[in-house]
């Protein structure tokens, strides 16, 4: 068995991000952080994310072989000789994640985990990715369910702040991924995947990114404006928003790959700061 090949199929970096998103959702609504609950939540989300990621590798192995960035992936490169084994592995991981979520928490956590995996594996990978530029817009909802799962792990009845955070996650994905798509435009064009910069070019895509980012930072301010989060969140999220908007404006003024790379990296920095702001705002006295 090719252990490292199967590990790569799980897309560990994406899994860690999904797990951290769920942990932040938990921290946003919990009065106190329960380390044991967080460990179990993270493990369940890692398993669910891995299941959908393995399926993504399985389904996209044909176009992965033809793209520079993905040609070395285990299924694309033939490092795993029987793709059907990866398909079974995908199902096993997802079932394990759902079983853990249901057994350790409640049906709401399991449902959100399932919906996130379903949207990424089926709605995005199978239905939308090769058909429409809205692929990543609609498919971006997959990450939003992680924050809802995390909140439901503490209390499924607390919904307003988690829903607002999920909307922010939903709006974050296009800015992040369209910037990456500018960097990978030639790869996507070569395999016929209709990512936005392939269809409209880098200049128009940069305008879409800026417009989406304006909506993103506005949505991130809503919990503070509504009084659901306090001054710490307001200060950190505002600073992060100004920095990210400036990076987007630079891309708008000079569309191109160097500026797109800065927006792509800046999007991850922005989201990290938003996550940190939520945790600090809710638990700074305890952490201090």
UniProtKB/TrEMBL annotation:
Organism: Haematospirillum jordaniae
Misc: Carbon 2 of the heme B porphyrin ring is defined according to the Fischer nomenclature.
Pfam families: UbiA
Cell compartments where the protein resides: Cell membrane; Membrane
Catalytic class of the enzyme: transferase
Name listed for the protein in its UniProt record: Protoheme IX farnesyltransferase
Signal peptide positions on this chain: none
Alphabetical UniProt keywords: Cell membrane, Heme biosynthesis, Membrane, Transferase, Transmembrane, Transmembrane helix
Superkingdom, natural source: Bacteria
Pathway, per record: Porphyrin-containing compound metabolism; heme O biosynthesis; heme O from protoheme: step 1/1
Gene behind the chain: ctaB
Protein's GO biological process: heme O biosynthetic process
């Amino acid at each position: 068995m090719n252990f490292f090949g199967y590990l790569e199929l799980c897309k560990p970096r994406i899994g860690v991000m999904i797990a951290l998103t769920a942990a932040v959702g938990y921290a946003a609504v919990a009065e106190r952080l329960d380390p044991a609950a967080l460990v179990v939540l993270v493990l369940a989300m890692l398993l669910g994310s891995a299941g959908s990621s393995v399926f993504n590798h399985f389904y996209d192995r044909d176009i992965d072989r033809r793209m520079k960035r993905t040609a070395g992936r285990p299924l694309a490169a033939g490092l795993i000789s029987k793709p059907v084994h990866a398909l079974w592995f995908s199902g096993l991981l997802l079932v394990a994640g759902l079983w853990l979520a249901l057994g350790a928490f409640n049906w709401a956590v399991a449902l959100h985990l399932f919906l996130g995996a379903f949207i990424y594996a089926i709605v995005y990978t199978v239905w939308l990715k090769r058909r429409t530029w809205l692929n990543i817009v609609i498919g971006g909802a997959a990450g939003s369910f992680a924050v809802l799962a995390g909140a439901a792990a503490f209390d499924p009845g607390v919904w307003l702040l988690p829903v607002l955070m999920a909307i922010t996650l939903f709006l974050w994905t296009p800015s992040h991924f369209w910037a990456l798509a500018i960097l990978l435009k030639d790869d996507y064009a070569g395999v016929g995947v209709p990512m936005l910069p392939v269809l409209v070019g880098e200049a128009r895509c940069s305008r879409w990114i800026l417009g989406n980012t304006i909506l993103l930072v506005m949505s991130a301010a809503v919990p503070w404006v509504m009084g659901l989060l306090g001054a710490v969140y307001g200060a950190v999220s505002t600073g992060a928003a100004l920095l990210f908007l400036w990076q987007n404006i630079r891309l708008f003024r000079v569309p191109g790959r160097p500026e797109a790379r800065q927006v792509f990296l800046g999007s991850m920095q922005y989201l990290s700061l938003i996550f940190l702001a939520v945790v600090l705002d809710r638990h700074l006295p305890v952490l201090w």
